[in-house]
Amino acid sequence: MVTNTTTKDHKLALLIIDMINDLEFESGDQLLKYALPAAHAIKKMKEKVKAEGFPVIYINDNYGQWQSDFRHLVRHCIDGDSRGKALAELLKPDEDDYFVLKPQFSGFFGTPLNILLEHLGVDTLILTGVAGNMCVQFTANDAYMYHYKLYIPSDCIASADKKENDLAIETMRQVNKADVRPSTDFSLKHF
Amino acid sequence: MVTNTTTKDHKLALLIIDMINDLEFESGDQLLKYALPAAHAIKKMKEKVKAEGFPVIYINDNYGQWQSDFRHLVRHCIDGDSRGKALAELLKPDEDDYFVLKPQFSGFFGTPLNILLEHLGVDTLILTGVAGNMCVQFTANDAYMYHYKLYIPSDCIASADKKENDLAIETMRQVNKADVRPSTDFSLKHF
Amino acid sequence: MVTNTTTKDHKLALLIIDMINDLEFESGDQLLKYALPAAHAIKKMKEKVKAEGFPVIYINDNYGQWQSDFRHLVRHCIDGDSRGKALAELLKPDEDDYFVLKPQFSGFFGTPLNILLEHLGVDTLILTGVAGNMCVQFTANDAYMYHYKLYIPSDCIASADKKENDLAIETMRQVNKADVRPSTDFSLKHF
Amino acid sequence: MVTNTTTKDHKLALLIIDMINDLEFESGDQLLKYALPAAHAIKKMKEKVKAEGFPVIYINDNYGQWQSDFRHLVRHCIDGDSRGKALAELLKPDEDDYFVLKPQFSGFFGTPLNILLEHLGVDTLILTGVAGNMCVQFTANDAYMYHYKLYIPSDCIASADKKENDLAIETMRQVNKADVRPSTDFSLKHF
């Protein structure tokens, strides 16, 4: 059962969606092209967020591997020499990072994510990761319905298709009322 | 995303609730007394179930340790020389066993359990574990509302208090329409 | 979409579970015997709660009648001269009372109840109604997992069987940490 | 509790989203322009679907009116002489139509919709209504994660902005694998 630790009231959390990813699927190549610069931007964002003591949560597809741990997936991507190796190395989770395995596109669907966020006292989410028009947007939609404020830095989001990525970001700005300014403009003073 | 593997239509699944447990809490001692014989019965049940190719799912409290893996928890219980070491040794998960970490009493609350069960094509659950009047009963209630048929072998359920355990089993028989015959009566022909 | 009206921060809500009920089922007769005095106690509780401006929420089974409104159900129970007529007359909903139709035992399962409670700013629930060992207990379990504080006045709860009702109340006291003192002891100063 | 009536295995259901709507909000005027021809197309679709005995489900925003019934909302739109009167008259629910009130954009979020669809034995949804880039798309996303097959006839969907509507339809075609051919091409033989 959820214990009431001193982790309450973090207010802000950084979500890193599907970046621990072997990219071994069609269009994985194409996605990598855009995901790599996003990974660099997310890495910097992660440093800023952790410097202030805010939590970082990896949201990851379980790829139908219901018997696997997240740490196992990290090793698979790095040691397995997969297409996504560079991403996993850049964004290798720390011991104190959180993770949530999701069976579907949205990070909230069939997962404890909302319970974890309530446990951490979070009301604002920084969404980053891939793919912008799929898992990120589905997660943004649920986040919006749960009343989280959204910051979705445009340079921390990637999709296999640049135009679809831009459309997804524009939709999240309009429909989900997300702040989509690039992470280079980011300052914790916004929050 | 859920891949449609050949794991469909297993029909039956064995759920082992909170038996991977260091029991390092008040009344853990008392619970161990009843959980140990239950662990022996569950071990036999697990063998029968796996011999027929049905899936085994460990449902486990995350103990507020949102950064930990299930395999880590198993090692903690066994190598850490905890009060629950004997239970974890008897019921050590196999590589092909499934697991679901739950943040609350019910195995369905804030977890992908229902999605996993649909993925596996399961319609009947064998519920086993601890504590009978808490996590087992809460899980049984949700399972009932999701329309699963329930087999809750009375000798595979334990609570810190024998009388409360008996009451929980009787309630699950009446309210949740569970078959509660002991596992010694169990035959896959029932299913 | 949820509008942010001035209804926030009510803190306390009274839930009346399945008392709008034609009782036209086996053991309905038996249930009525205990539900009638409970209805009188709930009526008084409702008056006290409304006098302080707290919301009252009727939680009601939809009886598989997915095409019916709640107001229709109220009329059915009263005008239809059903076995449950006296209950519905005593506890006839006011225009400003809330209602939630549930497809299953728990008031939270497949309903907007938790969203409504968050909308109202509620953190403490007074649970009343029938049947104590079924819909009330299932609702209490979910409420507990959602971290609501529970007051379940023993004289406002009824089941077809007196002994089972007493057991359910005792279980909710122990497992769900509910205050179960009778409503005659109730004072809003507790909250 | 869900009763197992003879309504099982309908396979197909028509969902009509937010068309019972007073449109009394900014851009309601603009939305009406596109929603009116959509209403005519939905009306024809409804006739075809009902002729084959498939269920029709109205999914409707509760507009924060947690104390109101759906039938009340219908009367409000028609008798209240609202901007949305023509829509409500065209698509006035029949006695045997189902309805689900939703507190948020998605018809699945905090509602019994999925339970109702399972109860009806539905595996394919025809999504129609407004707004295409908001409630329809959010509902389509959840439907996709629940593994429903989707038919979203492009002429039965409207948004306040034509271009955004087209983008939403194209996204649902690509991401949610929806069939988006116009309803004029519709034949029950597809299913």
From TrEMBL, chains A, B, C, D:
<dbReference type="InterPro" id="IPR050272">
    <property type="entry name" value="Isochorismatase-like_hydrls"/>
</dbReference>
<comment type="similarity">
    <text>Belongs to the isochorismatase family.</text>
</comment>
<protein>
    <submittedName>
        <fullName>Isochorismatase</fullName>
    </submittedName>
</protein>
<dbReference type="GO" id="GO:0016787">
    <property type="term" value="F:hydrolase activity"/>
</dbReference>
<dbReference type="InterPro" id="IPR036380">
    <property type="entry name" value="Isochorismatase-like_sf"/>
</dbReference>
<keyword id="KW-0378">Hydrolase</keyword>
<feature type="domain" description="Isochorismatase-like">
    <location>
        <begin position="13"/>
        <end position="175"/>
    </location>
</feature>
<dbReference type="InterPro" id="IPR000868">
    <property type="entry name" value="Isochorismatase-like_dom"/>
</dbReference>
<dbReference type="Pfam" id="PF00857">
    <property type="entry name" value="Isochorismatase"/>
</dbReference>
